[in-house]
Write a structure and sequence with these properties.
two-stranded parallel ribbon, globular, SOUL_heme-bd, 27% helix, Reg_factor_effector_dom_sf, 274 residues, heme binding, Heme-binding protein soul3, Multidrug-efflux Transporter 1 Regulator Bmrr, Chain A, alpha+beta
Length: 274
């Protein structure tokens, strides 16, 4: 990994393994919530439908605000439109595109999956470096700025489409006991925008080409904060047969659920040295 920037570095058929997920509110749940509300407005006048849609947008915004406060994060009113765009149909563009990868190997014990080895393809990522007081604040504020880029604050002025996972790059000391306050939040550009990535309006969002990368990955659920991340890093290091093959101070948290929620579906990634 490039220590001075956002990039991953390292080292068929692509896809991703769905982590075992308990009941949680995901981006897809929010989408269903919004579309159900909008479907009730089809029998009124255009004015009534507009009012109903505004009320739905306000409900979504209030929901995000209420959840985010539990992480000491404030969701500003200007997030209403990106939230609405990300959680409604967007003219058929609501499908989440998986970041493409090839599965190389799986390590199991007593029928339980311990971790997977994958190769992720070279591609364009939009990334932003955050330095908030806590990791939770950094990923939430970083994700909201990436959301604005996805939802029209780009040179096309259009919704770009959502990909999963959203990843955060974290750095630790050699003993894996302290996480740096510098956190990178990154979004893989959808296939249709890989050749010519739209330019961000936000000058702090960078578009970078990340090389193909081999990672060792393990799923986990729940909140991601300094304590849980350190715990997951140490657990993964114990499971790996040869942890020395990977970088010892740079790791990735892959998130498949809105980072404002406490019970998230995540993966920890160890990056193989080139």
């Amino acid at each position: 990994m490039d220590r001075g920037g956002c990039q991953m570095s390292g080292g068929g058929s692509g896809g991703r393994i769905e982590p075992n997920q308990p009941e949680m509110i995901t981006l897809e749940d929010l989408e269903s919530f919004s579309e159900d509300q909008l479907s009730d407005s089809g029998n009124g006048s255009l004015e009534e439908e507009a009012e109903t849609m505004e009320e739905d947008d306000e409900r979504l915004l209030r929901y995000w605000q209420d959840v985010a406060r539990g992480h000491q994060v404030e969701v500003s009113p200007d997030m209403a439109e990106p939230i609405q765009q990300l959680t409604t149909n967007n003219q058929g563009q609501s499908q989440r595109e998986p970041v493409p990868f090839s599965l190389l190997a799986r390590k199991e014990k007593c029928g339980q999956l311990l971790y997977e080895k994958r190769t992720y393809e070279k591609g364009h990522w939009a990334c932003i470096m955050m330095r908030e007081d806590t990791y939770e604040q950094s990923i939430c504020y970083g994700f909201m700025r990436i959301m604005k880029y996805i939802c029209q604050q780009n040179s096309l002025g259009d919704y770009l489409g959502m990909t999963l996972p959203i990843i955060t790059v974290v750095r630790t000391d050699e003993n894996h006991s302290v996480i740096s306050r510098d956190v990178t939040v990154a979004y893989f550009l959808p296939t249709e925008h890989q050749a010519q990535p739209p330019r961000p309006t936000d000058s702090e969002i960078l578009i970078e080409i990340w090389p193909a990368t081999t990672v060792y990955t393990r799923a986990f659920t729940g909140a991601t904060n300094e304590v849980t991340i350190i715990d997951q890093i140490n657990t993964m290091a114990e499971l790996l047969d040869s942890p020395g093959l990977c970088f010892n101070d740079s790791f990735i948290i892959a998130g498949y659920t809105n980072p404002a929620h406490s019970n998230r579906a995540n993966e920890i990634w160890f990056l193989e040295r080139p």
